[in-house]
Each structure stands twice: as C-alpha cells, then as structure tokens.
Design brief:
The complex is a heterodimer of chains A (111) and B (113). Chain A has 111 residues and is mainly β. Chain A is built from no helices and 11 strands. The chains are: A mainly beta (111), B mainly beta (113).
Chain lengths: 111, 113
C-alpha cells in the first residue's frame, strides 16, 4: 500500500530556532496536508496544499508541495514553547477518499 | 460551529469484552472517516462513510470491527470481542467536498487488558 516517510522522527530544539521536517512518498498525491497533534487532542489541520510547487504560509509556518507531487516539507520559524507536539504530514489522492499519514515528527522546544 | 466530537474519551476493557465508540461529525459533513493510531505509529485509515453508505472499508482490520452510520449523521464503531492488539487511539474525522481537508475529533483512547 501507499506509504509516507516522514523525517525526522523527533527534534529537540531551543526556543527561537527554525525547524524543518519533510515527507516523501513513492506515489503521487493531489493534496498534501500538515496536521499538529497536542497531547490528548486530535490532529488539527495547519496547512493544505493543492498544487505542485505551491508554497503556503500560516503565520510562522510555511509548507511546500513538491514539484514531483511526491513530497512536501514544513518549516516553522522562530519556534516557541507552544509549538511542542507531534506534526503529521498526510497525502490525499481520490475525491473524498482517505488520507495517508506519515509517522509523525515529535517536536520538543526548550525555553 | 461545533467540531467533531467523540465519546468516550477513554475506555479500558478486558480482552473478550465489547466496546462501542461514537462519533458525531461536523453538522452537514457527508464524509465521515475512522482512523486508528497504535502506539508510536502512523495514523491509519479504517473506514469511510458517505452519508450512510460505506464508501471504503479497506482499512478495517477484521470482522471483529463493525461500523455503522444510521441516517447519515453520527457513527458508531463496535469492537467485539476486543483483543489486546486493538489498543490504540481511535480518531473520527469528517469533511465536506473533495479537496481532502478532513477535520478530526479528539479521539477515543482504547486500552484492552
């Protein structure tokens, strides 16, 4: 089946540092999505990307849809303690169909 | 607008028992999905409803899992009989439209002992 490889698995950074994480796939997707999960909560949608090459920002977050449609990255600039959590990438292909998730990147931010 | 809600938030049951999870999607969302995350692994798709019809149930692990969505509103996911490997967090999500944006509930943490 389809798989997404997300890296890194975990990151320990200092407050104020920039963060980058990415996902790659062996299959193409029509949409890439990035979610954040806080402890005890469900994943919250951060950014959705719909076109190859698209670069989209949401505050300090920037994500890009790779040209090949097989990869995406998420950058967080000037990290703050509330950025702590697990970040998931997800790919979507069929109309109304399922999401395929990466394994998640667990982010820890040291004040 | 109320988000996706799930009940219960936690459930601890013994192997062999039955558990029923409930999901209330965002009002007006025709698409409802069930996913599961087992400890430390990726979130995996279980099932997709469009209104009351099962569109895709390719992710259901086995016939111990039964999902329903009567009337196209809320959905239930029943596990009977539960096994140890069924432990994990079960998420429900809903969407409207075809662009891929799905909105998740807080999840039900199921522990089978």
């Amino acid at each position: 089946g389809q798989q997404l490889n997300q890296s890194p698995q975990s990151m320990f950074i200092q407050e104020g540092e920039d963060v980058s994480m990415n996902c790659t796939s062996s299959s193409i997707f029509n949409t890439w999505l990035w979610y954040k999960q806080d402890p005890g909560e469900g994943p919250v949608l951060l950014i959705a990307l719909y076109k190859a090459g698209e670069l989209t920002s949401n505050g300090r977050l920037t994500a890009q849809f790779g040209i090949t449609r097989k990869d995406s990255f998420l950058n967080i600039s000037a990290s703050i303690p509330s950025d702590v959590g697990i970040y998931f990438c997800a790919g979507y292909y069929n109309q109304g169909g399922k999401l395929i998730f990466g394994q998640g990147t667990e982010l820890s931010v040291k004040p | 607008e109320a988000g996706v809600t799930q009940f219960p938030s936690h459930s601890v049951i013994e192997k062999g028992q039955t558990v029923t999870l409930r999901c209330d999607p965002i009002s007006g969302h025709d698409n409802l999905y069930w996913y599961r995350r087992v400890m430390g692994k990726e979130i995996k798709f279980l099932l997709h409803f469009v209104k009351e019809s099962k569109q895709d149930e390719s992710g259901m692990p086995n016939n111990r899992f039964l999902a329903e969505r009567t009337g196209g509103t809320y959905s239930t996911l029943k596990v009977q009989p539960a096994e140890l490997e069924d432990s994990g967090v079960y998420f429900c999500a809903s969407s409207q439209g075809i662009r891929g944006e799905q909105y998740f509930g807080p999840g039900t943490r199921l522990t089978v002992t």
